[in-house]
Design a protein that fits this description.
The chain is an alpha/beta fold and about 280 residues long. α4 runs antiparallel to α6 and α6 runs antiparallel to α7. The longest helix is centred in the middle third of the chain and has 20 residues. The structure holds phenylalanine (PHE) and fe (iii) ion (FE).
């Protein structure tokens, strides 16, 4: 299900796969395209063919519109090709990295409209489940959303907010916002519930589960509630948070979080399956 440890907001890289030896100071590397084997290219194509069947009717329109234009069918995408499209659309750029990067490195990239993409692809035995982000998760899950102008601005704001949260000792709260929006967010549309979270969109099982299963709680977006909510990294989410628009998400996260972090210090964390009387549920 593409849970990425609790690390999607960037996290210490020790103990992780990937060659951190040959990178630049900002953790970027070159994509050595000719180093991908035919077996790896074939694995990409099979991942792609499985997931492309699943996203119509389950992913939001913004995502699907961008995905259609991306050159994902033939094999692992080339960074420079996607960057030409993405730069023209929203002035974002992708940078290749060896894997998860430290928090502040990650935030600095986002704050400058650079999205770190892991260059390597998962092993065959991880075909349906991988615990770290790989090139498929990043390109298939995250990249299409960066084509949406409002979401793109939200990601930049998140990066800037990350630098600030780090200084305030507020990272765990901010990380939950990333988790419950960028990775596992749902959006309510006139056609019904749709996914926009990358962790869901790159997962063969959760992409349907998140929008159709009667099991999880689906709660209307509530910034405080999200920041208090723990999450599971080893199973489908027990709670999803639902926005009505990307503008709503941007506007709700625009204010200075400093007073909010102070308030949260006095509040208990909530379990991932918490049911609160004040939750506004989406049916
Ligand atoms: N407004 C937040 C702050 O002041 C920054 C932020 C924006 C964080 C968007 C996340 C997403 O810290
Ligand atoms: Fe991710």
């Amino acid at each position: 299900m593409n849970a990425e440890r609790q690390a999607n907001y960037g996290q210490s890289s020790h103990g992780l796969r990937g060659d951190y030896g040959r990178m630049r100071a900002d953790y970027t590397v070159d994509q050595e395209y000719s180093a991908y084997t035919e077996a790896q290219q074939d694995r990409w194509r099979r991942l792609y063919r499985r997931q492309i069947e699943l996203v119509p009717g389950r992913a939001c329109d913004e995502y699907l519109a961008a995905l259609r234009e991306l050159p994902y069918q033939q094999g692992i995408p080339r960074f420079e090709v996607v960057n030409a499209q993405l730069g023209a659309a929203t002035r974002w750029q992708l940078v290749a990295v060896p894997g998860l990067v430290p928090d502040l490195v990650f935030f600095d990239h986002l704050a400058n409209r650079r999205f770190p993409v892991t260059w390597w692809i998962r092993e065959e035995h991880e075909f349906s489940y991988i615990v770290e982000p790989d090139v498929f998760h990043d390109f298939f899950g995250h990249v299409p959303m960066l084509f949406d102008p409002v979401f793109a601005d939200y990601m930049e704001a998140y990066g800037k907010g990350g630098v600030k949260a780090e200084a305030l000792g507020a990272l765990p709260w901010l990380a939950r916002l990333y988790w419950y929006t960028v990775e596992f967010g749902l959006i309510r549309t006139p056609q019904g519930l749709r996914n926009y979270g990358a962790g869901i969109l790159s997962s063969p099982g959760e992409v349907d589960y998140a929008v159709t299963s009667p099991k999880p709680r689906r709660v209307l977006f509530d910034l405080r509630r999200i920041m208090r909510s723990l999450y599971r990294i080893d199973a489908y989410q027990e709670t999803y948070f639902v926005i009505d628009s990307f503008q709503q998400l941007f506007d709700a996260t625009e204010p200075d979080f400093t007073p909010l972090y102070r308030e949260l210090q006095a509040l208990e964390d909530l379990p991932a399956d918490a049911a609160l009387a004040l939750d506004r549920l989406v049916s």
